Amino acid sequence: MEHHQMVLVLDFGGQYNQLIARRVRDMGVYCEVHPYTLTAQKIAEMNPIGIIFTGGHNTAYLPNSPKADPDIYKLGIPILGICYGAQLMAHQLGGSVSTPSQREYGNTAMTIDSDSVLFQELEREQTVWMSHTDYVDKLPDGFVGTARTEHTPYAAMEDASRKFYGVQFHPEVEHTKNGLSIMRRFLYDVCGAKGDWSMDSYSQVLIQQVREQVGNGKVLLALSGGVDSSVVAALLSQAIGNQLTCIFVDHGLMRKNEGDEVEAAFSGRELNFIRVNAGPRFLARLKGVTDPETKRKIIGEEFIRVFEEEAKKIGNVDFLAQGTIYPDVIESGAGDSAVIKSHHNVGGLPEHVDFKEIIEPLRMLFKDEVRALGTALGLPDYLVWRQPFPGPGLAVRCLGEVTEEKLAILREADFIYRDEIAKAGLHRSIQQYFAVLTNMRSVGVMGDQRTYDYTLALRAVTTSDFMTADWAKIPYEVLERVSNRIVNEVRHVNRIVYDITSKPPGTIEWE
Questions:
Q1: Residues 124, 156 contacting (CB under 8 angstroms)
Q2: pLDDT tens for residues 470-502?
C-alpha cells in the first residue's frame, strides 16, 4: 500500500504466519504475507520498512529447504528472523545451524545477555515459547548473541549495524510473556514505524481503490447476509453508489428475522437491492433428502440457478464482487493469487453471468479487521458481529429431512439460545454457538402427560482460528435458563443436550 508504511512477512511454512501479520497490524503498521520465493528486486519495489522471516518446520542447511533470495540482505532493510527464520539468516550469512541432542518445546526460561534494542526495559530473566529442533551453534560474522537458554546458546542474536535480528523463540504467541514488546521494539525502534495504519484510514484508501478500479462500470454482488458479503456491500455502496446491484437470495433457511434484518440494513444505502424469496423452491428440492452432502449440493446448485436467473434480468455487468478475505488468499497460495471461493462453499461461480473481472476489496483483511471495517462503514452490530453461519443455513443444523415444521422449531430454539448468551454477556467471548435439531425423539413428561418429541442439541465453541476448537464452558445457570425457556416456549422439544466435543475429533457443525 503506497499510502501506508508496510512490513513484509516472508512465509517459510510456519503455522504462525497469519498471527505474525495480525500482531503487526494490531500495532498500527500495515503488513502483508508473501511467499519466501519473492525476489529481492520485487521486495525493493514494494519498499517495506522491515521484513520478518517466519518460522517453519524445515532444516536450514539442507539443500532443498526453503531459502530467501540472498540479495535480500543487500537491500539495507531491517530483518527480524523468527525460529526457522533466524536459523536461515544465520546459515545464509555464514553461520552454522545444527541439530542438538536436547530439543526445546513450550515455555522456556531465557536469560538476556545484552542491552539489545529488542529487549529494552525488560527484566534479565524472561519466559519465552520455544518450538524448535535445530539451533544456531555458530554466529555469522558481525553478529553477537543477545540471549540464551539452558540448551540454546543463541536464543537471540543481532547485527545491529545492519539491523539484522534473530530470535529462536516465538514472540508473536501469547506464551512469550513480553513477545509483543519485542516485536514493537523491532517495528518502531529498528524500522522507524510511524503507526499510520488504522481501519478508519484504510477504509478511505479502499473506497478510493474501488472507484479507480470500477470507474463507470457496473458491479454485481451475491449478498448472503454474512459478515464478509455485507461489509463488501457497504464498502461498494459508499464507493460507487447505484453502480452496485446486490442480489440477496433468501433460501428460507436463515435464522429468525435474518432476512428482514439484512434487507433493513441496506434499505437506506445507495445501491440496487434485490431480495429473492425463494424458500418454497429450496424446500421443494430438499423434500425427502436426508444425506448432509446431498443437501449441501442441492442448496449450492439451486442458489446459483436463482442468482443466474436474477442476474440475467440485469444484463451484462463489468465486475462480480466477492467477499474473499486474507486467510483465504494466504491459504490458497501463501500470497499468490487467491483461488476463487465457491459461493457458500458448496457451489461454483455462476456460468451464465457475463462479467469481465472479479473484484475482491477485502482480500487483504483478516476477519476481525473485516468486522472493524464494517463498524467504520456504519453497519449495525447485529450484522457486523453476526455468528458464523454455513451457506446451506439451518438445513445442516436440522438433521435428517428438512421440513417447514422442523425449521420453525429450530428457528425459535436457536433464537432463545442466542438471546440468553447475549444477555449473559458471553456473545463476544464465544466464537460460535447455535442449536441443532436432532432427528431423535424421546419420551418426556409435560403437564402430567407423556410426550414423544424432539431432542435439541446446543453447541458452543471457543477458537482462535476455527481449525481447532474447544467446547465452551458456559455457566450452568445460563444453560439452565436456555433449557427452561426452550421447553416452555418452543413446542415439540422435550429434551435439551449440550455438546461437549472438541474439534478434533468432532467438527463444529453437526452436518
A1: no
A2: 999 999 999 999 999 999 999 999 899 999 999
Catalytic residue at 83?
yes
Catalytic residue, candidates 4, 170, 343, 344: 170
Residues 6+ apart with CB under 8 A from 470: 461, 462, 463, 502, 503
* Residue 34 annotated among the catalytic residues of the structure: no
Every domain of the chain with CATH number 3.30.300.10 lies at 397-498
Longest dimension (CA), the chain: 85
CATH, range 6-190? 3.40.50.880
Check 32, 158, 172, 369 and give the catalytic one.
Answer: 172
Q: Which residues of the chain have pLDDT under 70?
A: 1-3, 330-354, 447-450, 465-467
Q: Where in the chain is the domain with CATH 3.40.50.620?
A: 199-384
pLDDT digits (tens, 9 = 90+) for 242-274: 999 999 999 999 999 999 988 988 888 888 999
CATH number of 199-384: 3.40.50.620
- Indicate which residue of 31, 83, 246, 398 is catalytic: 83
* 31 given a catalytic annotation: no
Helix, strand, or coil (residue 141): coil
